[in-house]
């Protein structure tokens, strides 16, 4: 039997067929809602497991034990551990992009809009450390799996489009210098926000400062706003 087929089975002697449906007079809407809740429950637990242990260390058995479902159900929804991992990656990137899109920055002055996006990015990283660890794990795998996530590039193009619009508006307002690459801008924002979470524990051990502590995090967030907005302002020559 090919290896790919083995991934679809939960365990020897346990069929990979769909779980038996519950009987009773339940509407299609009820069943769809239950299915979505089950799927989200699996993804939530799997996110923590993959973030803590990586793809190789996480176990479907352990994920099943911590969900309100079964190992068989996990394979029914996601087919394999690798497919579940890709679904987790897709969900986490989708959530951060959705949070950015919900800000409604289009009507704000450019500097204000940029500051708002930076603060949202910083807060999301602080509040969702699992996202940071997942990205770190994916880089350990040389981005082997994220390229197979359907629509991942299109999904992440939204933040570049938003930054491009802010930069164009800033040039028109005369408050931002010309020639800023929106991908460079996104990279700089992400790097500063990401580091606050990815290096929190080592920074605490070495320097005795907890970057995740409320007062420290708030001060760090405003520093990043000042750094990025200052780099973008008109009259500020880029330093390379």
Automatic annotation (TrEMBL):
<keyword id="KW-0238">DNA-binding</keyword>
<dbReference type="InterPro" id="IPR036271">
    <property type="entry name" value="Tet_transcr_reg_TetR-rel_C_sf"/>
</dbReference>
<dbReference type="Pfam" id="PF17938">
    <property type="entry name" value="TetR_C_29"/>
</dbReference>
<dbReference type="InterPro" id="IPR001647">
    <property type="entry name" value="HTH_TetR"/>
</dbReference>
<dbReference type="InterPro" id="IPR009057">
    <property type="entry name" value="Homeodomain-like_sf"/>
</dbReference>
<feature type="domain" description="HTH tetR-type">
    <location>
        <begin position="36"/>
        <end position="96"/>
    </location>
</feature>
<dbReference type="Pfam" id="PF00440">
    <property type="entry name" value="TetR_N"/>
</dbReference>
<dbReference type="InterPro" id="IPR050109">
    <property type="entry name" value="HTH-type_TetR-like_transc_reg"/>
</dbReference>
<feature type="DNA-binding region" description="H-T-H motif">
    <location>
        <begin position="59"/>
        <end position="78"/>
    </location>
</feature>
<protein>
    <submittedName>
        <fullName>TetR family transcriptional regulator</fullName>
    </submittedName>
</protein>
<feature type="compositionally biased region" description="Basic and acidic residues">
    <location>
        <begin position="25"/>
        <end position="38"/>
    </location>
</feature>
<dbReference type="InterPro" id="IPR041474">
    <property type="entry name" value="NicS_C"/>
</dbReference>
<dbReference type="GO" id="GO:0003677">
    <property type="term" value="F:DNA binding"/>
</dbReference>
<feature type="region of interest" description="Disordered">
    <location>
        <begin position="1"/>
        <end position="38"/>
    </location>
</feature>
């Amino acid at each position: 039997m090919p290896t790919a087929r083995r991934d679809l089975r939960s365990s020897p002697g346990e069929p990979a067929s769909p779980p038996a449906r519950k009987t009773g007079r339940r509407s299609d809407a009820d069943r769809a809602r239950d299915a979505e809740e089950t799927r989200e429950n699996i993804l939530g637990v799997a996110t923590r497991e993959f973030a803590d242990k990586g793809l190789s260390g996480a176990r479907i058995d352990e994920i099943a034990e911590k969900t309100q479902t079964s190992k068989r159900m996990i394979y029914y929804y996601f087919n394999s551990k690798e497919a579940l991992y890709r679904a987790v990656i897709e969900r986490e990137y989708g959530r951060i992009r959705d949070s950015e899109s919900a800000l409604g920055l289009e009507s704000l002055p450019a500097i204000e809009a940029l500051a708002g996006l930076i603060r949202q990015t910083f807060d999301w990283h602080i509040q969702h450390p699992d996202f940071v660890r997942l990205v770190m794990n994916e880089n350990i795998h040389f981005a082997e799996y994220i390229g197979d996530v359907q629509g991942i590039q299109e999904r992440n193009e939204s933040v570049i489009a938003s930054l491009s619009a802010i930069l164009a508006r800033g040039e028109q307002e005369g408050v931002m210098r010309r020639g800023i690459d929106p991908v460079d801008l996104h990279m700089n924002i992400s790097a500063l926000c990401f580091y606050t979470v990815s290096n929190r524990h080592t920074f605490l051990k070495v320097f005795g400062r907890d970057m995740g502590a409320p007062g420290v995090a708030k001060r760090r967030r405003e520093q990043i706003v000042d750094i990025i907005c200052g780099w973008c302002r008109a009259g500020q020559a880029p330093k390379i």
